[in-house]
Amino acid sequence: MNKPLAGWHRLASFLRPGRPRAGIRTLRRNQRRLLLSGGVVLTAVILSIAALDLVSSAKNTYARHGDIFRSTQQAIGDVLDQRLEGAIGYASINDAMWTLQSGRLEADGRTRMEAFHANRNVLGIWPGGDGTMPWLVVGRENLGMPDDRVARYIGLAREYSMLARSTSLFSRYSSGGGIAYEYDPGHALALVAGLGSEAPLAAALDEATPDQVIDRLVRIDRELRSKAFARSLYGRQVYFALARNPVTSEPSLYTSLPLLDGRNEYLRRVYFEPLVDIESRIREKTRGSFLVLTREGETVLESGDHPAALDQAEVASILAKKLWEHPLENSVRESHREGSLILGGVPGTDWTLVYPVTREELRASMVARGLRLVLPASIAVAGIWILLLLLERKVLAPALAEASLVYESEALNRSIIETSPVGLCVIDSANGNVLVENQWAASMAGTSASRKSALFDFLSSRLARIPDADADDMPAPPAILDWQVDGTRRLQVIASRVRYRERPAWLCVLRDVTAQHEFEEKLRSARREAERARQAAEEASHAKSSFVASISHEIRTPLYGVLGHLELLSRSTLSEEQRLRLQRIGRAADALLAIVSDVLDFSKIEARQLDTVMAPFSLRHLVERAALLFAPEAQQKGLPLYYRIHPALASRYVSDANRLQQILHNLLSNAVKFTESGHIVLRVDPDGSGPGGKGGLRFSVVDTGIGLSGEQQARLFEPFAQADSSISRRFGGTGLGLALCQELALLLGGSMSVESTPGMGSRFALHLPEIAPSPSRDEAGASLQGMTVALLSDSEEWREEVGGFLASCGASVHPVRQWAGLADAALPGDAAVFVVGDFAGQSVPVPEPGANGRRIVVATMDGPLAPQAEKSWTRVSCYASEAWLAALLPGREASGAAADDRASRQYRGRILLVDDHPANRELIRQQLEVFGLDIGEASGGKAALELWRRNAYDVVFTDLHMPEMNGYEFAERLRQLDARVPIIGLTASALVSERERCREVGMSDVLLKPILLDRLHSVLAKFLMPRQSHAANQAANRAETAAPSPRPSEAVRVAFVKQAHIDLADMRRAVAAGDEAALAELIHSFKGVLLMMRETDTAMHCAAAEAELEDEPREAWLHRVSALIAELERVVERYGQPA
């Protein structure tokens, strides 16, 4: 046995019962030695890490300076690259000017030739003014050059002078900091920048004559070019070198390059840029000290506070390395008396970059790093020793103290087992023998040996099947077993794995759970009874909902008859008293229908059968219709009813407009009902609760009514709940409206909220965060561009809404509060006056005729939906924006006027009406006859099929619920006979399932009873062609009588028929592909040709189909377009017959 294991065995022997104290003393002595050794080792490790960090700090210092060296190297190369690209770029511009503008340059130069020759072939050119600079043209006494070429050079010098300030190449030399000149290949002429006469140049060069000046300039270029290094770009070679400015003797960067006319050099450009400018640009891009040496050992650039001091031998050693030959390879580091040097070439040059790293910098870096390490290292060492001390005192010492109690603890445990009130035993995992048991365990097992053996055999066999602990040595959860004794008593055994005397075993706890088992059985029985009661309650709730829905359906059916006949009766001739009574009956029936509809809708919501129809709708029309509906009741109570649409909102959105309208009607109805004084405002604003805080709509109804307390608001949206019991007595109502609003809002993906103060009023809001603008194009409103409108109203709400709307249509709006303000508005003579509101309850003070001939429009709460002329003004409704535009723009019809004429519109076609209820069938027949239709009637599906086989019908109306053959079966049978005929289902309770089934059997639409004429008109307009009115027919007859329409010529007829067949085929393909744009273009083309052919009726049908294509979805226009194609085929067939 090795020594460590022997030590652990001795320690274990000390801990055995009988010698606990000796083992504890040995353990305490060994753990102190272990703690001391560990502290020493950790301290040594920390000090080693600190030393390695210092070495790493030195390497990082060199690496940081290496990065600075490479950035400096790159910065110098970048500056030289910029100089190269700039020189080549300006040279290319110069070459283009020389080649492409030679005639202009020569003509410009000839005007100065006389002055040039008169001044002994010397000419100073300076037009003067901003953006110019002087240029000097110097020629030899004997030029030996044609005059046209001399003139061309002079013209070029003048061009330089004009563009010099805007050309950075020459502008830097105008202040005397550098020099630039050009000379021709024959050395006969030179151009010098920045000089207006030759005297300063001759004095600077110490030359007397122009010939000597030119020779000196050429000689300077040749000498410097011979020892310069060359860079090539775009086929042009540019020379760079370190030189002194021949005029100022300042160290400069010499640059020389040819100017080419094709492949021929016509000038050589030479300029000297002060090194000070280059140094400043390099310092902007890098930091630190550096030195740049030429191949000859001359200093090009020197930057920094402590440049390296190099003697001749060190310079020669550096140049001998010829680092410029491989400037992009790794830099070289050499020792120096002041530290070390980093050496490397400059890309594209024969220069060497020298970067010094001094010992002071390295020492300072290591000292700073050492100081930063002292504190954390000291803290770490101190922390380790403190931690070891705490570990010894707080952990190990208490552990040793607990170990000293192990012996006593074992004895205590045996006492606990013996005196425990439950059965306890320990079973050997290997063989199932009972190692320890108390008397309770023995008594629970039974008095006889066979019963004891049966219990312990059962435990041994069941426990042997339980898997061991997992791989992470985590203890397995206790096992729970049940054992039944004599069929009456139940024992529960909880077993857990333990080790007993170094052997695996099971510790078992035995409990008599007979009483507990009986209690749990009774509890389960009670729960089953509760579940049955809950299911019965749910079934009762569903039965209640079904009953409410059924009774509401049964009420709606006779209501349909009441409302339909009331609507038909209103179109007959009545006395004023009869019409008043009829209106009262209609309002009562409408109220009853609204209550029944709310109950039915709420029942649908509970059954999850309320559907939504998402489609584009006009936001303004929705708001105006809602306000218009409640304006009379509000006006009767003296309450102004305003609305406000935020100008940033789109004009059309996609949602269920009917459900939105239902919510707004409920909110406005409550506002009018609970408000006795003040005002009511319907607002639409951006909600700001969509993704990213954008999008969505918020409809708000604000009133100054009775208000609500916090407690009342908490139960406001509960079904059939009102604020308190007095509300029903004072104001009536069912308490279902707001609960229905909440459910409808959730159905539309939104929510409801309320803010209220008792006695001050309330704000109810509908939030729709997910509603989106319609992708279809916005409504094309009338343009008031160029019109000036004076908006007169004493209400700020009306000024904001009406003024914003008119301004969005292009008008220039001038709001005023009183008539007297019109005189101060300085309006043009053709400005219109728009008066809106009731001026605090007083009648509108409209002047008599003669008010400067202005157009005056008066909008009031009780105004008409279409413009109505009265005396010298036009009267409209506050809630009809289309009427506003129609009144301001003569000749434009308001949509309200068109809407008023819907009921009187006539259609062409035959209708098959199928309904088993005679009264319903009679009412629908009378409603359809209003539109001038021919109706065939059947009392069931079988009779309707017989009628269909004998006659041709354009549209079929059928009730869904009929005996023998219901509406679904009838539609399926009819679709087998005719796949294209429109089939309209009629029902009083159109649930989601019913609508889906209607679509499945091929129905085109579903109408919900009661059916009013407006809704019936909307459906008929989808599937039938309108007839011309009687007036239109008379006008057409008069026109035909006055000018008979002859049949077109044979050539026109043949061309029309040929092209029509092609267009009809294209229309069918466009319908199949759903290409609305192509279809609209073809229909528009047909409309124009038909008007020319005097086929007015068919042309009008084309116009109606074209308008429906723009506004309606495919399902709505498909039948109209199909009918139009059939009509066009008949027209083409008629014209296909020769005269």
How would you describe this protein?
The protein is an alpha+beta fold. The protein folds into 7 domains: 90-282, no CATH class; 423-513, no CATH class; 521-598, Helix Hairpins; 611-771, Histidine kinase-like ATPase, C-terminal domain (Heat Shock Protein 90), CATH 3.30.565; 788-839 and 853-888, no CATH class; 907-1026, Rossmann fold (3-Layer(aba) Sandwich); 1050-1136, Four Helix Bundle (Hemerythrin (Met), subunit A). It has 34 helices and 39 strands. The longest helix is centred in the first third of the chain and has 81 residues, at 20-100. The protein is flat and about 130 Å long. Mean pLDDT is 76; it is low at 1-20, 728-732, 839-844, 892-903 and 1029-1046.
Please sum up the structure shown.
By secondary structure, this protein is an alpha+beta fold.
